[in-house]
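Data deposition worksheet. Section B asks for the primary sequence of the deposited chain exactly as it was used as input, without tags or linkers unless they were present during the calculation. Section C holds the resulting structure in token form. Section D is free text for depositor observations; keep each observation to a single sentence. Incomplete worksheets are returned to the depositor.
Section A, Depositor: J.P.
Section B:
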Amino acid sequence: MATNRKLGKATDIRMAMLKNLTTDLLVHGKVETTLARAKEVKAMADSLISLAIKEKDNFEEVEVMIKKAKLDSKGNKVTELVKSKNGKEYLRVVKEEVKEKRQKDMPSRLNARRKMMKTLNKVKDSEGNAIDVPAKLFNEIAPKYAGKNVGGYTRIVKAGPRRGDSAEVAILQLV
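Section C:
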């Protein structure tokens, strides 16, 4: 007997679809899909949120030295004219060292992050910047559900039949 629904798809296509739906749910807060797909995504999302809640405070603050491009008052990179060994001149960006505090994951949180990245897709926002979905899970979603009992982080609301094929449509949302 199968442990999960086949959803009429081959394994690789089904897993890609479920990864997309789970990622969209966590990034946007809700997703509209068929009832069977919503039930599968609910299980995946609830397990990811449980994992994030368990590991949300398992890090340490570390001070790191970072080399960054020096910026002028307008926000442009500062350049300098440099002469190479063979006599050619070129522009080089001036760099400065900056101390910055960062979160360093402990081993169990790092493992949890890797499990999440295996279940989620990489996402970019409208400006083309990458969204770190595991960081969003740890920093935004997990603290919101920290006091809640295990499970029940998502809700399925039936929206009626779809017009084209009468498939039962449901809205899956974070509670």
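Section D:
The mean pLDDT is 93.
The chain has four helices and nine strands.
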